[in-house]
Structure formats: C-alpha cells, structure tokens
Model the fold of this input.
Amino acid sequence: MGLKMRLWILIVAVIILSFISLFIGAINIKPSDLLNWESLETQIFLISRLPRLLAIILAGAGMGIAGLIMQSLSRNKFVSPTTAGTLDAAKLGIIISMIFFTSMSYIGQIVFSFAFALIGTFIFMQLLERIKFKDAVFVPLIGIMYGNIVGAISTFLAYEADILQNVDTFFQGSFTLVVSGRYELLYVAVPAIIIAYIYANKFTVAGMGEDFAKNVGLSYRTVLNIGLIIVAVISTTVILTVGVIPFLGLIVPNLVSLYLGDNLRKTIPHTIFMGAAFLLICDIISRLIVHPYEIPVNTTVAVIGSAIFLIMLFRGKAYAKK
Amino acid sequence: MIEIKGLSKSFGKKTVVEDVTLKIQAKAITSFIGPNGAGKSTLLSMVSRLLDADTGEVLLDQSDVKKMKSDSFAKRVAILKQTNHLNIRLSVRDLVSFGRYPYSKGRLNEEDHKFVDQALEYMNLTDMQDKFLDELSGGQKQRAFISMVIAQDTDYILLDEPLNNLDMKHSVQIMKILRKLVDELGKTVVIVLHDINFASVYSDRIVALKNGRLVKDGPTHEIINSTALREVYDMDIPVQVQDGCRICVYFNSHN
Done:
C-alpha cells in the first residue's frame, strides 16, 4: 500500500469516526435536527458534541506528537509523556497551585503546570544523558519510577491538604466534562503541532545524536529545548482540559514508525491522524459500552493501548531493541 | 590545511590529550594510531569541534575553527563517529539527504538532490536508497553514512574507527572507498584506526599517540618499522614487506 494512500485512509477514518462521535450520546440527535437552529438538539450539538469532538481530535493528535518528539529526542521508542514523568510533573504543578496559591487565576495555574511539566521532563532528559543505559527497556522503567516519585509527592501534598478526591477526579482522563467554554485551552496544541512540523527535520537530525547534529551544523541544545517546550505545552493543555491519557503517546508514534520509519517530516502527518483516530475509537467505545452512561476514556485507552503495546513488544522484538 | 597547535584536554584529573601539535596534510589519508586510551578519538573530536579543547587551537586554513559559524564549518569538515549504535529507521536516501543540511536546512533544492543522487551513485547505493538503515548489513550501513558525508561535500572527512564491527571484506571495501575519495575527489581524510595494518597499507601519513602525547608523525613508511612502533606500542613488532605493503606481524610478539 502506498504511503500517500495510508495517509488518506487515516484521514477518511478520522472523518467517519468524527461523524459517528457527533451523533452518539444520551440524547439522540439526527443530522436533520441541526437544520433547526433553535432546537434543543442543535444546542446540545454546539455546546457539547462539537467541543467534545474537537477536544478528542486535538488531544489525540497532540499526545501523539508529544510522544513522537520525545521518542525522537531521547532516541528511545519507549519514552512518552506518561513514561518520562512529564504528566506527573504537570500534575504536581497543578496540585501545588491548588493548595498554596488558592487565589491563583486559571492562567496562573496553566503557567505553573507548564513550568513543572517542562522542568520535570528536562530533569528526566538530564538523567538519561548522565546514565548511559545499554538496554532500551530500562529507560522507560526509570521514567516510570521517576514519575511515581513525583506522583508520590503530589499524593502526599493532596492528602495533607485533604483534596485527594478532587485531584483524582480532576486528572481522570475523560471527555465527559468537555463542553463549550471548558476545553478551549486545547487550541494551544494547534500552534504547538505546527511548530513541531516546521522543526521536523531538526528533530530528526537531533534524534541521531548530538555528534551527528553538530556535524551538520545544527544547534543541538536549542532544538532539544524547543522540543521539550512543545511537549510540555501539549501535555499541560491536555492534562488541564481532559486529564491523563495514557499509552497514546507511546503506541501511536511506534505504529507509524513501523511502516514509515523515523523521518519526522514524513511521520508527523500520520501521527496526527492516527492519534486522533485512536482516541476517537476509544471515546466511542467508552460511550457505547454502558449506553446511555459512559466510562472514562482513559480506562478504554489503557485497555486497548496496553494490548497493542504488548503485541508490539512480542511481535517486534528485533525492531524494539535499540 | 588543518593545523593543530598545543591542543590539550583533561577529563577531571585525567589528562587525555596533552600539548599535541601537528599539521594534517591536505589531499591525503592520515591515520591516528596508538594503544587504547592514547587520546586518538578525543583529538579527532576536538579537531571536528565536537569537544572543546582546554588549551590550544585548531586552525583550518589559518582560521580558528572555534570562531567559525557552525554551518560554514559543516560545509568544510565532516565528522563520522561510530554509528553502529544508531538504530533510527531512516531510509538511505533520507540519511544521505541530511548531508545537505548545512546548505539547505532540510529544504532540498534541485542542486541538493543532484548531490544526493551523485553521492548514492558513488557509493553504489542507488538500488537500495529506499531501504531503511536497520535493514542493511553493517558494511552497507557504513557505506550509507559515508555517502551522507560525500553529499555534505566537505574538503575534510574525519572518521572515528570506521572499521569497527566490520568483517574483513567490508573493512577492505571501506578503506578502498576512502582511498578513492582522496585520489579521485581530492578529499583530505583523517581516520582513527585500531588495525595497524590497515593504517600501513592505506594511509599516506601516520600520527602515533601514546598517553595523550604525540609520539610519531610522518609518512607511513617512516612509522611502520620496528623501532618506531616499539616506541608507540612497547612491543617488538616485526615488519614484513609483502607485495609492496608493509605488514606488521605482531601476533606472536614478546613484550
């Protein structure tokens, strides 16, 4: 199958899935209902369904790109925002701002959580540089441990401040609460993804190592920092609006890499649409499985994601080894 | 011409390269040889700006390399470090295209594509340009990287142990290619080599290092003899001439 063809299939899949996503839910909306601008159905469509769809697409594409950049820059296929402490650090930032700066505005919270995500990921990358691992599987293990340490601090603080339950609901990845007015922060992911595409070649070169990058005259540190900023921006916006979406940033870039390789200029478009399609499927399942109720999307993502991840591990041993 | 003047480098308390001064002759192959830990790779890394020297300077046609802009330096000097750890899934053509990065910043124009085509052709890789690097054998992979360096179109090509992990056939193939780069394209090639016989047979000049210091620097025939080699390796190394090649027969030597 041609690569252009594959991209078109992904795009068509996203369109079809979007259509399905728009017309399922507790209240039955038919496309014909939308002709009446004043109807309740149209209101629900505009306030809830459409924002939800946009949020899913942006979060799916964004997490895919964040994972892709991290894997490229760390030169490790198992690194993603969930396996490098990025999301845990963002979470810690939010909790600290919740507890210690109660008067802080929403914007303040965003900036605080972004700064933590950035610093948290940066520390992990520094850690990677200092400890030269021979085995690629150790890297995410260290990342998960590191994330858990950061997470433990968050839990301790939340427990002390008696906001543990709030925190749990807040971070549970779910699109249930996404309505117009509560998701717009996700639009920040759009420029982040565009910048990622502009820098695609530089990320690929940087992904071949500092020496390689320097040889062709690329300023490695700058590119690394820009990559980390993009990752932190996307992770923060997703966690603040939707919550934690595990696995997506790990498996989607890997699936794309399997058939398309690691040249980001080529893989970014595929990653965007595959990430969106993957999250749309998971969300549709979440909404249908106990219809008219729904389960949190991160549960579905975790079940499907871990299954795909295991298959990838077993089938692609030769490929996964670095 | 590259001139190295009083170059030193320490890591912590350990001095790895100490006050090395030498000139690298243009349009020739110069091999850096010496025992493990002699500082060969560190010296090469400093010449190619991958490492900053503690003291001393490297002059490229009379100008200090440290003061050169990174992309104009990348158009004149290419460095290939050991690449066997790289497992990136990139097509051969994409890799070679990155050799044009200093010129095009990733947006290749017609001229860049022409350079890429020529570089692939020169290394006999045109047929496998769409293959991923991880589908290639060690020798093919090394050829792909050298092809990238050719596309980079630099006068100077520096290679750090290019024969590492290659079998005999591919080692010979790579050395012949390097020879061609000098003889046909007029490049200046500097290599770090472990195999002293490859250095002897293929290089024009040899630079011998030991404990970070320059021990010998001269035309190959002046270095590949038992007296000089004893100074470098602390070993009795008999040298035999076979078909005009000076071969070191050190396998049975007494220390």
The radius of gyration of chain A is 20 Å.
